[in-house]
Every structure is written in C-alpha cells, then in structure tokens.
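The data are set out underneath:

___
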Amino acid sequence: MFEIVFEDPETQEKQFVFQNSWGITTRTIGVMAMVHGDNVGLVLPPRVACVQVIIVPCGLTASLAQDVRKALMARCEELCKELEAAGIKVKGDYRDNYSPGWKFNHWELKGVPIRIELGPRDMKQGQFVAVRRDTNEKLTLDLSSASHHVTELLEKIHHYLFDKAKKDLDDHLTVSHDWKAFVSSLDQKKIIQAPFCGEEDCEDKIKKDSAKDVVVEEGAPSMGAKGLCIPFKQPAEIKPGMNCIHPHCGKQAKYYTLFGRSY
C-alpha cells in the first residue's frame, strides 16, 4: 500500500510508515488447496498441516470386553503422547457417537497427512496401521518405534507432494518465440515465458488478441494471456534484434515475461 503516513509524536511531522509483507495470503492458501487437493478433499503438506496425524481407535464393537476397550483407549492416548514428545502435531478422535468409517472420511476431507488405525488385534501384535492421505497407501508398522516411523513417513509425504507439484509445473512451463506457438501453448493450459517489450499497451494487445478464438460464457473473463511476472531466472539471454512476442509490436524485447491465461 502507498502513501500511508503517521504523525511523529516528537516532531509532529508526517512520516511514512515502515511496511513489511510475509507474502502469505488467502490466495497462497487457495493455490495450496488446488495444487495438492483431490476429489475427496484437502491434501495438506505435513509442514503446514495444523494436525499432521489423527489417531482413530478401531474394532470397538458392542461385544468387546470392557477391559480390552479401556486398554485400547489408554494405548491410543499413550501413542498420542509419544508422538507429541517427538514434535509431531497429533490428535486422537475418541468420539463414540461416530463410526471409524465416518471418522476416516471426516479427516480425509480435512487433508490430515497420516491416519493411524489401532485396534485390539493390532495392540496384541505390537503394530499399527498408518494410512497416507496423499496416496491412500496403507502401511503396517511397528508400534514400539511409532514416533520414528511416523516422522520418517511425514518427510516422505512432504517430498512426494513437492516432487509431484514440481513435475506438474515443469510439464506446463514452456518458452515461446512465435505467436502461433504462444497461442497454441495457451490452449494447452500452459504458462509461457516469452520475450516482451515491457509496454503496457502491448500487454493489453497480447491479452486481447490471444483471446480472439476462445469462446467464453457471458460475463466470464476474456481468457486472454496475462503477464504474471518477470522471472528472476531468465530462460535465455535477450539478444539484439529479438522482438516482442506480439506479431504487430516490432519493438526490441527487454526480458522474458511469464504469461498465463486468465480463467
């Protein structure tokens, strides 16, 4: 924001405020949801999830002996404390008015990275079942070293989600020097690094002309190419005689600019 001033209490003069931005906005959160989410719900990267692990006790049938039930709940709470001591953000879902299946769906929708299922049989065998939210993979792990296994699994999930998102970005990032290739790449839902003169009028023409052949609903955005940013890491050197991407511009390009279609 600009022109924000305050009155200095000592001199009574107007001073500009010192501003800072950490760059975390609702748009950042929205991008995270769109990049990693699936048809079930959110898929949260472990490092930003407010709950990294949810523990759900299973096998609590009406015929289960009361002492076994108490022992199972106590073991779940003990496991919760073990994981907390290892720095893991964990929560136990001990509500008795919902079935395990309902709880599974509830926490999948919220994007919790790992679900731990622990039942009487698991307890006897000294194991637990961990389910990854990102891949739905089920793993049977040793209960005595649960904190080690879960910490390791959270790191695996982090790297898997990052690599998957990075590949998706790389697959949709291209460089264009020709207008037809530029428009074709837009139609393939790619983001494009193209030489650009930096003139505002030319950017408006690029947006207008790249939307000509696109049919949109009434009231919807124009679907033209929009300048997103000037990448710090340029894909190539701008050489003398390299013109702006717009076919009717003819001006010397100043830098590669990242363009994408507005939806």
